[in-house]
Amino acid sequence: MARAPGLSVRLKLTLSYVAFLMVAGVLLLAVVWVFLLRYVPDGAGSRAIMLGPSRTDLWRAFAPRAAQAFAVLLVLGLVGGWILAGRMLAPLARITRATRKTAEGSLSHRIELEGRRDEFRELADSFDAMLARLEAHVAEQQRFAANASHELRTPLAVTQTLLDVARSDPNRAADELIDRLHAVNARAIALTEALLLLSRADRRAFTRERVDLSLLAEEASETLLPLAEKRGVTITTSAENAPAAGSRTLLLQMTTNLLHNAIVHNLAEHGTVELRTAAGPDSVTLTVENTGEELAQPLVSTLTEPFRRGSERVRSDHAGVGLGLAIVKSIVEAHDGTLAIVPRPAGGLRVTVNLPAAR
User: Are 24 and 30 in contact (CB under 8 A)?
Assistant: First the structure.
């Protein structure tokens, strides 16, 4: 936005300082003049001559000295005000330079203002914190874009390969080609839908309503029961009423993703999943705990990143697209909640979602 040039803040502060100094000088000289008038007679004549100098003589002696004092105050005010304003605005100049570097695309620069805490220090610290969050967010978005491009390119490349093989071998069975193309296309559709859901959760584009997490837990358990039975996993549900405020569709997706992740990443035989809901005075809790392989905390802390899988990106028949926990994290944050993922000592994970309770 183009703006007309104006006076600098330093010059404005200097002029303000000079104006204040001049007003204070006028008041001081006025007080001195009034004080002197109390002891000097007014008028002429023999009585006035006998008493000493008159007010006219005093004014002739006082006025030049007052003018000189005003001139000295003006010079001192301009010089001192300019220096003081420069020192006061020095932190602001550093903040301005950092802002310009940020506008040019440098997010790694920090102000790091020294000194004790004051208004400028708080502004600089807030700006540094904002830059740190922005840099982390941009880096996360860049990783997400790169991973999404890779994941979307994979089914397209597989489709292209299948079509090339079919073209070079016209006698190849069409049913096998159709089945493989159908599987690849279904995976691409699932990935696209997951990306759309993740984008919707990040935008918070939903209407809040009263949702009972216990009902969602039971619905997710019934939906994924066939998958659990197929993989030999036992689901145990302990659901007490836990009313939250949010989108039923997104919260059901969150619960389903957590339960699906707990079933898929479990023991090969006799695995268990425990699903619990609880309600407190101000919040409700959903906990999903499953058996499985032992996981290190550094790996667990990265599971909510998009396209990151706990099994080092090894795919299986139900491995998903690598967005399950990333979607869960976005849904939880969109509902102003918290997500905690900790490894169990015996193996597996304990995932706890804490959401504000519905009023």
Answer: no
